[in-house]
Design goal:
Structural class: mainly alpha
Strand content: under 5%
Distance between the termini: 64 Å
Length: about 300
């Protein structure tokens, strides 16, 4: 197989294509051309800080953003290390740097370690409670790549991981964990299951061939109904968190833009349209922004 055939188009254009050739596979491992994952990991962190009222810690939004980028990148590299043999069997992933042997496993582990050092720098900016809670998430991250071999609902495990920032952002402001943060986290878990089911729709055929399980395969043609149900649970969790912080019906109105956005996603989702499902998945960066605006308004209005 020629070099051209083993290099994906994403490494020949855009941000990655502008890098020196020797760095491009490592940038691809980190998914630098797909920042959506960093945004989705970041938003629950920002929601936790916002709903807690910020209380002068505006710098947390930047630190947690850096942490989300570093740890999402590290998670992608780790996932590719674990899945390198499986990735060779899937059309969409067969040209990934490890699957195509353009990066050694040793180099990938080194990159993971460097990204974790960045995460450690961020961790040192947090108080003890937030830092300890953040460290607990590493066990969930380590187990995630194996979930699709075990359960039909690996998206639920991803939800635990990608929502963990809600449990970090709140104590980073207040110094301790509280029920609103837990409800915010639970709502985010349901949100992740919904949007990652959309993402999994594009891989249903390949997943079936190699025996990989997913919520999209489990739900089949009922996927739109399932996505809508998980989004409804997300809104319930977020609404309950808001109510505990500011028990006022008007405060719940702050979630209406996000509710409209999520409802539109569920109505437009189609298990037979992988490209459409991917576009709907990507639109969740804007849903995250809408929820952030709601949490910030409520948090600032309720702060002492």
């Amino acid at each position: 197989m020629s070099t051209i055939e083993t290099v994906p188009d994403s490494e020949r254009r855009g941000l990655i294509g502008a890098l020196p050739a020797r760095l491009r596979p490592f940038a691809s491992l980190m998914r630098l051309d797909r920042p959506i994952g960093s945004w989705l990991l970041y938003w629950p962190c920002a929601w936790g800080v916002a709903l807690a009222g910020v209380r002068g810690r505006w710098d947390l939004f930047l630190w947690l953003g850096l942490g989300a980028f570093a740890m999402r990148s590290a998670g992608c590299v780790y996932n590719d290390i674990v899945d390198r043999d499986l990735d060779r069997s899937v059309e969409r992933t067969r040209l990934r740097p490890l699957a195509s042997a353009r990066v050694s496993v040793r180099s990938a582990w080194l990159l993971t370690g460097l990204l974790c050092v960045v995460g450690l720098v961020v961790l040192l900016q947090l108080n003890r409670a937030a830092a300890l809670i953040a460290l607990v998430s590493l066990a969930l991250v380590a187990a995630y790549p194996f979930m699709k071999r075990i359960t039909w609902w690996p998206q639920a495990w991803l939800g635990l991981v990608f929502s963990w920032g809600a449990l970090v952002g709140w104590p980073a402001v207040t110094g301790s964990l509280a029920l609103p943060a837990v409800l915010l986290w639970l709502g985010s878990v349901a949100w992740v299951v919904g949007y990652d089911t959309l993402y999994a729709i594009q891989d249903m055929e390949d997943d079936a061939l190699v025996g990989v399980k997913s919520s999209a395969r489990r739900l089949g043609r009922k996927a739109p109904l399932g996505i809508g149900a998980f989004y409804a649970l997300a809104l319930m969790g977020w609404g309950a968190a808001i109510w505990l912080v500011k028990p006022d019906w008007l405060a719940l109105f702050a979630l209406i833009p996000a509710a409209v956005h999520l409802g539109g996603q569920a109505l437009r989702s189609d298990p037979a349209d992988g490209e459409g499902a991917l576009n709907l998945f990507r639109s969740n960066r804007w849903c995250g922004l809408l929820v952030f605006a709601a949490m910030l308004v409520v948090g600032l209005s309720a702060a002492p």
